[in-house]
Amino acid sequence: MADCDSTDADLINAMSEHDEAALRLLYGRHAAWVSARLRRRCADTDVVADVLQDTFVAAWNGAGKFRGDGDVAAWLWGIAIRRLISRLRQASGRAAKAPTWKLYDAVDVSAEETALLTVEYSDLGTALARLSPELRVVLQATVLDGLTTREAARALNIPQGTVKTRLVRARTRLREELA
Amino acid sequence: MTQQPRTWHANEAELRALADGVAGPALGASVESHLMRCGACRARMNDLVDGVLLDSVWSAIRETVEAPRPSVFERLLRKFGVSAESGRLLVAVPAMRGAWLIGATAALLFAGGAALFASGFGLALFLLVAPLVPVMGVAAAYGGDADPSHELVVTTPYSAGRLLLLRTAAVLATSLPVAALVGLALPGPAWLAVAWLIPGLAFVSLSLAAAPFVGATVSSGAVAATWSAIAIAVSKIGDPMDLAGPAVQVGSLVLCAAAVTTILTHFRLFDLPRGQT
């Protein structure tokens, strides 16, 4: 029986045996941060609520397919970000040539944020802040959100080859900064 | 903003910035990637995020999870692009239930068996019963008294005409294969297995065309009685094979075309309350 001491993987296991209490516990542990991350990517609260619901329903239905060695948080986020992307794409309409939605904003890092980062964060944050917005969104999509280059290319609406070259450039830049 | 001492964890201000959606790209990315590795900081997010939203989403999740899972057949229909509502209505057709299928199979097997032992009379019996099986399915689907989901169907916000065609398709999909299989098992030429197809379709469309005027039970009963009388008369007077002969086939085709035309031109009638409902 699932309880507060169960690990996330135990909860998923119990969910695959239709233990609703396990789903409740998993939701209690993960819904808040998942919703916060979704909220950063989509301002529409209704869409965030829908995607959050879809994510945990999908986790319930797909609990049997969860590989025991994987990380539950990363697994959940993988579901959530993909649901969000397909939801946004649906809403913008398949007929539209240029996507009317934007998941990754290529905005500049403000001076305040940079100042905060230098104090608060290790060199990585600073290096990240110094990257050009185009390179940073590619890192966000692939490293942070765990999308494949193919998925990132679709989400960013740029060719897959461009994603790859930008990823290489971003890595080189980061390595130089951190050296 | 006052700086708190750096620990292994994200501080309150950083988490709050993330929760409120005001964290910039670099800070946000840093806190997000920390959250993915740190259960303690994830737990602290609970107090910072809109609890009302989380609660309402949870009740929606619980509703979805507790809803009965659609049957295998319903999920199969959905895979083939049938909408959830249409799928539920199709599954509710009596012809889709085991009892109906068993009844139809039993009737056909009986007729088929009779054909094996008493070829002349048995063959006539099979040719009499086979075209009527789908008619009975239609009658059961629209007769009211035979359909437990009748109340549901009457009150459903769905075009009655569309519903009728949808459910007829379900009846045909279940009864035609059974009759075809039994027909194939019969002695005699293989075309006998499908010889009743055109009469069967004609009878179904005829019953449907008359249904808005007299009700499905009466119309299909009248069709069944007429066909039975013709079949018995033909097999008494002449060769039972005549039942599958060109005269019957052509006649059925004409009937079928006339009935379909009536249905198409009077489609609106199906949306009116039927005499029997």
UniProtKB/TrEMBL annotation, chain A:
Domain RNA polymerase sigma factor 70 region 4 type: start-end pairs: 124-174
UniProt keyword Transcription, yes or no: yes
Molecular-function GO terms, alphabetical: DNA binding; sigma factor activity
Domain RNA polymerase sigma-70 region per the UniProt entry, residue ranges: 26-92
GO BP: DNA-templated transcription initiation
The keyword Transcription regulation is assigned to this record: yes
Keywords, in A-Z order: Sigma factor, Transcription, Transcription regulation
Domain of life: Bacteria
Family indicated by similarity: Belongs to the sigma-70 factor family. ECF subfamily.
UniProt cross-references to PANTHER family, sorted A to Z: RNA POLYMERASE ECF-TYPE SIGMA FACTO, RNA POLYMERASE SIGMA-70 FACTOR ECF SUBFAMILY
Name of the molecule in the record: RNA polymerase sigma factor
Gene source species: Kribbella soli
Automatic annotation (TrEMBL), chain B:
Membrane-spanning intervals of the chain: 98-117, 123-143, 164-184, 190-211, 218-238, 250-270
Coiled-coil residue windows: none
Organism, as annotated: Kribbella soli
Tagged with keyword Amino-acid biosynthesis: no
Keywords attached to this entry: Membrane, Transcription, Transcription regulation, Transmembrane, Transmembrane helix
InterPro entries referenced in this protein's UniProt entry, alphabetically: Anti_sigma_zinc_sf
Record-given protein name: Zf-HC2 domain-containing protein
